[in-house]
Write a structure and sequence with these properties.
Elements lengths: L5 E5 L5 H10 L5 E5 L11 H17 L4 E4 L2 H14 L5 E2 L5 H7 L4 E6 L1 H4 L2 H10 L4 E6 L3 H6 L6 H16 L4 E4 L8 H7 L5 E3 L2 H14 L12 E4 L3 H11 L6 E3 L3
The structure holds D-glutamic acid (DGL).
């Protein structure tokens, strides 16, 4: 069981930012990654639809013999993690949520900006997160429709992307935010561009590394950490696998075989 793989999924390529952190911290683990690119963007879908996709993914990973599940997607987590934990009590399940707690602790100006999907920002889970951790700071939220689609096409630098991003980040800076939460797993890929656009003293916070550490803790508690060696990561996409394979070297820094995910 220790050597069984870990299932990781996202609506698309965004979760590769989390997969990289998992592989860095847990190099002995064998990783399976499903990108539900045929249904992107999750951020504009209903919670019911996303919950249904979460169950499809979980069934697939169960069939693959996975020992743990990571929802490398904030939007899927707010919609689906509770149901998955109920339905798969045998698995360590790690979800992710915007890093409100560390951002509230880090801000000096008392203003925190959140870039995330519409689905994440409208969720009750996000509201609860603010109630719990953001009582002493001002939080400015900014949904970012359109951004995920550009990143899915491997666009991390174009003028159109920069202009869209300026429109989303501008109001946060204007409100005095000195800490910006990247609350969608696609956005860490925009860090190099964002760093060119915003002053050096503005912090960008994401949760990929924290997710990897939480996964490590849960696996260790259950004596499920692999001793290795890991098998190469395997990838599936519910849209054109060739498109995903072409983006892998850009976002994952390695080529990989991508299979078609049919469910
Ligand atoms: N990567 C996802 C997240 O972390 C969502 C992207 C989408 O809208 O599909 O929220």
């Amino acid at each position: 069981m220790r050597e069984a793989p870990i299932g990781v999924f996202d609506s698309g390529v965004g979760g590769l930012s989390v997969l990289a952190e998992i592989q860095r911290l847990l190099p002995n683990e064998s990783l399976l990654y499903v990108a539900d690119c045929g249904n992107i963007p999750y951020g504009e879908k209903t919670p019911e639809f996303i919950r249904q996709r979460c169950s499809v993914m979980a069934e697939f990973f169960e069939h693959q013999g996975a020992k743990a599940l990571v929802l490398a997607c904030n939007t899927a987590t707010v919609a689906g993690v509770a149901d998955l934990r109920r339905d798969y009590p045998q698995w360590p399940i790690v979800g992710m949520e915007p890093a409100v707690k560390p951002a509230a602790a880090a801000t000096r100006s008392g203003v925190v900006g959140v870039l995330a999907t519409t689905g994440t920002l409208q969720s009750a889970k996000f509201a609860a997160l603010l109630d719990r951790f953001a009582t002493d700071v001002r939080v400015i939220t900014q949904p970012c429709p359109g951004l995920v689609e550009l990143i899915e096409n491997g666009d991390l630098h174009s003028t159109a992307l920069r202009e869209m991003l300026e429109g989303y980040v501008g109001p946060l800076l204007g409100a005095g935010a000195d800490t910006i939460i990247l609350g969608c797993t696609h956005y860490p890929f925009l860090k190099p561009l964002l760093r060119q656009m915003i002053p050096d003293d503005i912090s960008l916070i994401d949760t990929g590394a924290a997710v990897a550490r939480q996964l490590q803790r849960l696996l260790a508690d259950r004596q499920l950490l692999a001793e290795g060696p890991a098998r190469p990561a395997q990838f599936w996409s519910s849209a054109d696998p060739d498109h995903f394979a072409n983006i892998l070297p850009v976002l994952w820094n390695k080529a990989g075989v991508v299979r078609s995910f049919e469910a």
